[in-house]
Amino acid sequence: xxxxxxxxxxxxxxxxxxxxxxxxxxxxxxxxxxxxxxxxxxxxxxxxxxxxxxxxxxxxxxxxxxxxxxxxxxxxxxxxxxxxxxxxxxxxxxxxxxxxxxxxxxxxxxxxxxxxxxxxxxxxxxxxxxxxxx
Length: 134
Fold this sequence. Notes:
- The chain has 4 helices and 2 strands, in the order H-E-E-H-H-H.
- It has 134 residues and is mostly helical.
């Protein structure tokens, strides 16, 4: 399961499938309404559900970045490539020019930054230097 393929490609694929096959899609469409104990009505929109799904995939991506292997470097490089391709899509494709895709881009950027940060931190802890070794 923990392959070097970035998991955030799944929300990107879902977005593209939905956006291109449903041109009149409304991201602010209410999927469900949850009655809260306070009496408030929580309306969950399609956009909010999609961002929540993307954050779930981000969680697993950050978990993947805690391992130390030769695959980790490939995973980071592919995450950067995915971010760059998605940024180009955001700038050039009309269907991707919306807040939902912009938030997906933010999640991808966080994946890139957090992946490198966590990997560097884990590598520092893995390195053991003895001062008396010659």
